[in-house]
């Protein structure tokens, strides 16, 4: 099926009249997603598949569907941002003695991500942890704020040339709020990782406080932990103190084009046959100069907190971004489901520093006060098994 698909994509590329590379890659990406949907339905309807967790009651009839932001109705977009704002008004479950800055239910998620950052990036749990995290955020919206929809996602490829004008960031009442106020003469963002050569990211067209849309009054309470600034310095802190400030963005089309275009997603899916390579290329192979599609999305948003890995869930777009990360992983899994469903690689720490044990299907992850309870990796490997019952549409 992978082969058939590749052949198909190549044929389309060869036969098309004068489409751009982007159009070809978008077509290929779309057909991979379609194939993933078809394969998922096949597996779900196959009653001979016994590997399924006993607690799963998921069928093709009741899969919930995650959609790209731009295809939601205005009412559905507003229902989503209203629910996020509601979470920001509910009290935190995290004790103030542990995290003085956690003021809302929304902040519980940010605090958990800050707390575990060193174990959930460039580690064996990266993909599954963020799948579980995004799911529990969605559950909190539903169960605590009456949200009736599903978690939307941000397909980076659709707006790579002009994300600031996309339905996600155009600043309307039906967006995820717009860019930050324009700040002139900014230097690049300098990313450093150990002794590897620095990566320089083109600054965006904002930089200041978000002034439009549903989150223009939002208070970012936690962080920073390590926020790179446009003058080459890094603002640091514990992340847990109460540090209320406006939400800032610096949307950079150049970063989106460079790292999260349609071709980079298709290449990621087709060129990495094992999970270790797949998740490493997705996050950016250290020293390669690439920050991967994962870094690409985060630094396309930029600003404060999205330039700060630890505090990045403090910008609500985080959950749309990780919807797309999850879609990309799920698509890759579905292209060879038998071999990839339970594929895990890596250890329990960031680039295995400090050295730690290999992650296995029995490894337990726990989102702490964000909720969801402790759960094994085994339960998180399929989006139609264990606690999950959803799919994606494009
Ligand atoms: C799916 O449908 C089945 C059969 O109608 C039902 O028993 C189950 O609870 C549903 N599961 C979910 C996750 O909605
Ligand atoms: C951070 O993680 C430690 C170790 O798992 C845990 O004991 C602590 O409660 C966590 N703190 C927060 C704020 O979740
Ligand atoms: C922002 O706050 C002001 C003052 O409290 C309020 O009038 C306005 O409606 C708020 N805007 C949004 C988008 O919530
Ligand atoms: C698309 O992304 C890849 C990296 O994944 C990069 O090599 C390529 O130059 C990008 N394309 C454009 C048009 O920037
Ligand atoms: C951990 O995984 C690596 C890479 O797959 C493997 O070489 C190593 O033997 C594993 N270590 C243990 C203790 O299983
Ligand atoms: Cu993360």
Tag the structure with descriptive keywords.
two-stranded parallel sheet, di-copper center containing domain from catechol oxidase, 394 residues, binds copper (II) ion, globular, 8% strand, binds 2-acetamido-2-deoxy-beta-D-glucopyranose, disordered N terminus
Helices and strands in order:
Blueprint: H1 2-15, H2 21-45, E1 64-66, H3 74-87, H4 105-120, H5 126-145, E2 180-182, E3 189-191, E4 199-201, E5 207-210, E6 219-220, E7 226-228, E8 234-236, E9 245-246, H6 253-259, H7 262-271, H8 275-283, H9 292-301, H10 303-306, H11 318-334, H12 337-340, E10 364-365, E11 375-376, E12 390-392
Parallel strand pairs: 1-12
Antiparallel strand pairs: 2-5, 3-4, 6-9, 7-8, 10-11
Helix pairs in contact: 1-2, 2-7, 2-11, 3-5, 4-5, 5-11, 6-9, 8-9, 9-11
Bound molecules: 2-acetamido-2-deoxy-beta-D-glucopyranose (5 copies) and copper (II) ion.
One 2-acetamido-2-deoxy-beta-D-glucopyranose binds next to helix 4.
Structural overview:
With 394 residues, the protein is mostly helical. 38% of the residues lie in helices and 8% in strands. It is built from 12 helices and 12 strands. The protein has helices at residues 2-15, 21-45, 74-87, 105-120, 126-145, 253-259, 262-271, 275-283, 292-301, 303-306, 318-334, 337-340, and strands at residues 64-66, 180-182, 189-191, 199-201, 207-210, 219-220, 226-228, 234-236, 245-246, 364-365, 375-376, 390-392. A hairpin with a 5-residue loop joins strand 7 (226-228) and strand 8 (234-236). The model is unreliable at 1-17 (pLDDT under 50). It binds 2-acetamido-2-deoxy-beta-D-glucopyranose (5 copies) and copper (II) ion. Copper (II) ion is lined by residues 113, 120-121, 130. Residues 57-59, 62, 389 line the site of one 2-acetamido-2-deoxy-beta-D-glucopyranose.
């Amino acid at each position: 099926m992978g082969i058939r698909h590749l052949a198909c994509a190549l044929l389309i590329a060869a036969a098309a009249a004068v489409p751009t590379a982007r159009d070809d890659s978008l077509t290929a990406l779309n057909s991979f997603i379609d194939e993933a949907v078809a394969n998922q339905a096949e597996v779900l309807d196959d009653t001979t598949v016994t590997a399924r967790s006993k607690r799963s009651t998921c069928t093709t009839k009741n899969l919930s569907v995650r959609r790209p932001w731009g295809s939601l109705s205005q009412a559905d977009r507003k229902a989503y941002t209203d629910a996020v704002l509601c979470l920001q008004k509910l009290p935190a479950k995290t004790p103030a003695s542990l995290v003085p800055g956690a003021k809302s239910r929304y902040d519980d998620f940010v605090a958990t991500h800050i707390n575990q950052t060193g174990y959930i990036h460039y580690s064996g749990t990266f993909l599954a942890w963020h799948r579980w995290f995004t799911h529990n955020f969605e559950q909190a919206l539903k169960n605590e704020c009456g949200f009736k929809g599903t978690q939307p996602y941000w397909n980076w490829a659709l707006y790579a040339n002009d994300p600031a004008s996309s339905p996600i960031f155009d600043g309307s009442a039906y967006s995820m709020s717009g860019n930050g106020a324009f700040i002139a003469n900014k230097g690049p963002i300098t990313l450093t990782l150990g002794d590897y050569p620095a990566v320089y990211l083109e600054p965006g067209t904002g930089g200041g406080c978000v002034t439009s849309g549903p989150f223009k009054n939002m208070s970012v309470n936690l962080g920073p932990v390590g926020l790179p600034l446009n003058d080459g310095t890094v603002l640091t802190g514990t992340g847990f103190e109460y540090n209320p400030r406006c939400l800032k963005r610096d949307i950079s089309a150049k970063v989106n084009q460079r790292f999260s275009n349609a071709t980079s997603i298709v290449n990621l899916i087709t060129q990495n046959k094992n999970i270790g390579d797949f998740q490493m290329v997705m996050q950016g192979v250290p020293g390669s100069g690439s920050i991967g599609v994962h870094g690409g999305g985060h630094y396309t948003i930029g600003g404060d907190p999205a330039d700060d890995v630890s505090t990045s869930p403090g910008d609500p777009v985080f959950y749309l971004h990780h919807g797309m990360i999850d879609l990309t992983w799920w698509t890759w899994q579905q292209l060879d489901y038998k071999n990839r469903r339970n594929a895990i690689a890596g250890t329990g720490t960031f680039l295995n520093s400090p050295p730690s044990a290999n992650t296995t299907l029995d490894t337990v992850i726990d989102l702490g006060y964000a909720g969801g309870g402790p759960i094994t990796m085994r339960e998180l490997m399929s989006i139609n098994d264990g606690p999950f019952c959803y799919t994606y549409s494009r």
